[in-house]
Amino acid sequence: MAAVSEFESVQRLMVTPTLEPLSSLNVAEVWCPPRIGFVKINTDAAWKKESSMAAEGRAALRGLKKAIQNDFKMVVMESDSKGLVDGVGGKQGNNLLMEIRKLSSRFESLEWRWVPRSCNGAAHCGWAL
Q1: What is the number of alpha carbons within 13 Å of residue 64 lying toward its C-beta?
Q2: 79 near 114, Cβ under 8 Å?
Q3: How many CB atoms lie within 10 A of CB 2?
Q4: What is the distance between the terminal CA atoms of the chain, rounded to a whole angstrom?
């Protein structure tokens, strides 16, 4: 439920004018909306029989495929898996990372970002449903 509360507080920030400059808000601790024209995909995964990296990679791959199906061209991918974000940006890797890189070429713009778990609460909550 903390993720729902976090999402609602961000929604209020988006629609409620504030006199506070954005620099005074602690944006590192909350989810932030994407820039205009971009779609943001936050991924999270749970695992039992596979490694966390494989589960996170599979979740990211599913998100990329959904973005392609919906014809999204400018995407920000966020994950709380630093290994995944670093792996996607590298040149080496397993079949899963290579498949992610191959799909990445289908976007006009695709940004990968690592976010702390505290900023990925909505994705975590969605996975738990």
Answers
A1: 25
A2: yes
A3: 11
A4: 11
Count the helix, strand and coil residues of the chain and give each as a percent rounded to the nearest 5: 50, 15, 35
Q: d(Cα 107, Cα 72) in Å, to the nearest integer? A: 8
Number of domains into which the chain is organized: 1
pLDDT tens digits, 92-126: 888 999 999 999 999 999 999 998 876 655 544 44
- Mean pLDDT value across the chain: 76
pTM as predicted:
0.68
**Residue numbers of the domain that contains 117:** 2-128
Q: In whole angstroms, give the CA distance from residue 53 to residue 123.
A: 16
Encoded tokens for 110: 């695709």
